[in-house]
């Protein structure tokens, strides 16, 4: 997910995307614990996407 995509989303869409990414992060951790992770690079991608969304949400709330 690129920053331009994130900035173009509404706060409701950002919150929904954040929830989905948190679920994916949990599932990845669960897969790692059971040794079934195939795409290990997704850990970093999901973590960075969560940070991007939180940053944009914070800035949108500060300006509103």
From TrEMBL:
UniProt key word Ribosomal protein: yes
A GO term from the CC aspect: ribosome
PROSITE patterns: RIBOSOMAL_L29
Keywords of this entry: Ribonucleoprotein, Ribosomal protein
Pfam families reported in the protein's UniProt record: Ribosomal_L29
Top-level taxon of origin: Bacteria
Membership in a protein family: Belongs to the universal ribosomal protein uL29 family.
Designated name of the protein: Large ribosomal subunit protein uL29
Organism (species): Phenylobacterium terrae
Organism phylogeny: Bacteria, Pseudomonadati, Pseudomonadota, Alphaproteobacteria, Caulobacterales
Gene assigned in the entry: rpmC
């Amino acid at each position: 997910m690129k920053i331009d995509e994130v900035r173009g989303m509404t706060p409701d869409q950002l919150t929904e995307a954040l929830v989905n990414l948190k679920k994916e992060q949990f599932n990845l951790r669960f897969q790692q614990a059971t040794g079934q992770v195939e795409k290990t690079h997704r850990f970093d991608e999901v973590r960075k996407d969560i940070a991007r969304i939180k940053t944009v949400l914070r800035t949108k709330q500060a300006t509103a």
